[in-house]
Amino acid sequence: MANIIIMSIIEDVSTDVSGNENFNEEMEEEHGLLFPSGISFEKFRDESERVRRKLGYTFAMHDASGGEYSAMWMKDKKNTAWITANSLQNFANWREDFADDGIEYFTHNGHRMAFRHDNMYDEENATSTPVSMLLVELKSKDAFIRITASSQKTKEQLIEFFNQFKF
User: Fold this and answer.
1) Who contacts 41 (Cβ-Cβ below 8 Å, separation ≥6)?
2) What pTM, to 2 d.p., does this model score?
């Protein structure tokens, strides 16, 4: 019977991180981006979980980085939703930034919104997925909310989706 020797190598990567020329620059960029001042990440995450369960999505991931709160929900590969919240200050010109021929601007319950159909391109699989997007300006919360869903939804479906949140 042969003896098996297991060797463990511990590598100190702290010098790699601190030596990374872009590390400090990336941290400065992150510091300059503002999160929504009227919504805490805990509130965003809790509301995301409540609404996700109510709408029947089975899986979720949440993150707060890059000046953005985000959640991804899945029922299956064809039914996915992404919800992001940014500081409105970071998206002060959102109407111009998202402008294209297929976008529809409107007001709902006092909130400026926009709706459009789009395609998300997956470089890894070289596939394009049709999605629908609702953009919402929440001035009172200093927040810009973006809800993206596949399979495509109607404007009314995404507004109802948004109405579930209690920010």
Assistant:
1) 35, 64, 69
2) 0.77
